């Protein structure tokens, strides 16, 4: 277990979770927002992407009310991404994160906001993050509203940043700055 906050638990990905990820990432309702409906995952593809790929991110399962409902990953932003995002001259500790709720029954109930707030607190307090960044697609207004409620702000438009359903989509670079950085 990475941490628990109330009825929310974040734990590192385990081998048995490949079946959950395959279930979620083969559901068109979920794929519409994460990976794309033209890119479903079977168990073998999950194994390759989430277990055999180089572990540059900490990959986790989100549990809520004692059941798995989604996925979150976080990572220290590498030099290439720093360059793309405009942070190449910064010496700050910069983390990125990605997440999705794989059980759509938990959408629009404030659970996403709880997840993002808890992850932000964890990254600042436990990992020493000065700044946390994400790059949601511009059309995903529900996710962007959630992130803004959690203290993220739009920094710049990233044109044609992510391949999604056969076309490159614009994304927003959004950031959350830890209070320690703001108070300096």
Automatic annotation (TrEMBL):
Q: Could you confirm whether the keyword Transferase appears in this record? A: yes
| Boundaries of every N-acetyltransferase domain copy | 8-175
* Protein keywords: Acyltransferase, Antibiotic resistance, Transferase
Gene Ontology molecular-function annotations: aminoglycoside 6'-N-acetyltransferase activity
A UniProt-annotated Pfam family: Acetyltransf_8
> Is GTP-binding there in the keyword field?
no
Principal EC category = transferase
According to its UniProt record, the EC number is: 2.3.1.82
User: What is the name listed in the Swiss-Prot or TrEMBL entry for this protein?
Assistant: Aminoglycoside 6'-N-acetyltransferase
Organism phylogeny: Bacteria, Bacillati, Bacillota, Bacilli, Bacillales
């Amino acid at each position: 277990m990475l941490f628990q906050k109330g009825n929310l638990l974040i734990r590192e990905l385990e081998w048995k979770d490949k079946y959950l990820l395959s279930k979620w990432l083969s559901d068109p309702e979920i794929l519409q927002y994460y990976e794309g409906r033209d890119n479903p995952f079977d168990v073998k593809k999950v194994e390759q992407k989430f277990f055999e790929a180089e572990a540059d991110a900490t990959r986790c399962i989100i549990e809520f009310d004692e059941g798995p409902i989604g996925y979150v990953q976080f990572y220290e932003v590498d030099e290439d991404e720093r360059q793309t995002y405009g942070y190449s001259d910064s010496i700050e500790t910069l983390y990125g994160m990605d997440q999705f709720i794989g059980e759509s029954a938990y959408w629009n109930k404030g659970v996403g906001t709880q997840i993002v707030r808890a992850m932000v607190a964890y990254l600042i307090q436990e990992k020493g993050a000065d700044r946390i960044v994400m790059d949601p697609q511009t059309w995903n207004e529900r996710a962007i509203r959630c992130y803004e409620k959690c203290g993220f702000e739009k920094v710049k438009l990233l044109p044609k940043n992510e391949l999604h359903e056969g076309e490159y989509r614009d994304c927003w670079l959004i950031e959350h700055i830890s209070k320690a950085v703001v108070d300096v």
